[in-house]
Amino acid sequence: MLWSARIDEFRAAAASKVATWFESIAKGATMPTRDTAPIGAPCWIDLMTSDTERSRAFYCELFGWTAEPSAEEFGGYFNFAKDGVRVAGCMASRSDVPDLWSVYLTTDDARNAGQRLLATTRAHRQRGQSDAEDHAMLMVRLAG
Fold first, then answer.
1. What mean pLDDT do residues 124-139 have?
2. Do 66 and 21 sit in the same domain of this protein?
3. Which long-range contacts (C-beta less than 8 Å, at least 24 apart) are formed by 135-139?
4. Number of separate domains in the chain
5. pLDDT tens digits along 5-50
6. How buried is residue 59: exposed, middle or buried, by Cβ count under 10 Å (0-12/13-18/19+)?
7. Range of the domain at 82
8. Residues 111 and 65 in one domain
9. Strand 66-67 and strand 78-82: pairing?
10. What are phi and psi for residue 96, nearest 5 degrees?
11. Per the domain annotation, does 5 fall within a domain?
C-alpha cells in the first residue's frame, strides 16, 4: 500500500510540473538560447522532406518560424528562423528516403565518435563528409 501511495504522490507532482510548464508556455515563455553546446548535446536539426513548400508553410504556421530563401547552390537547402535566430534547416529528400528530422550532436572529435558509434551499436554507416572549416558529418541508421 505504501508503494501505491508513493506512485500517486509522484504522479501528482509530475502532473503539477507539466501543468506549470504548459502555463509558462501559454504566457509566452521562451527557451533559452546558447552560442555553444556541450559535448554530446544537440547543436542543430534539419528536415528532409518530400514537399519543402508544404513543410515551409506548416512549420512557419505552427511555430511562428520564418523561412529564408532556398540556396540553390546547396541543393535548395534553406533555414528556418525564430525571432531572427536560425533554429533548423530543411531540404528536399530523395524519393527513396522517407521524410525525417535529423539531429546533430556536438563532439570534439567527429572521426573518433563515429568510429565508437559504429563499433558499439548496431548502426549502419550511410555516408560521411567533412569540409575545410573542420565540420564533419556521419549519417547512420540504427538497425532494427
1. 58
2. no
3. 136/110, 136/111, 137/104, 137/110, 138/110, 138/114, 139/102
4. 2
5. 555 665 666 666 655 655 665 566 566 677 788 888 888 899 999 9
6. buried
7. 42-142
8. yes
9. antiparallel
10. -95, 5
11. yes
> Which CATH number characterizes residue 90's domain?
3.10.180.10
Count H helices and E strands in the chain, helices first.
Answer: 3, 7
CA distance 40 to 131: 21
Residue/partner pairs of 97-102 with CB below 8 Å, 24 or more apart = 97/48, 99/47, 99/48, 99/49, 99/50, 99/55, 100/47, 100/48, 101/45, 101/46, 101/47, 102/45, 102/46, 102/47, 102/48, 102/139
DSSP label at 74?
G
User: Looking at the domain assignment, is residue 37 inside a domain?
Assistant: no
The Cα–Cα gap between 72 and 78 comes to 9
Flag whether 50 is in a domain: yes
- Of 144, 116, 113, 143, residue with least CA distance to 130: 113
* CA 83, 85, 87, 91 torsion-angle sign: positive
Q: pLDDT exceeding 70 applies to what percent of the chain?
A: 61
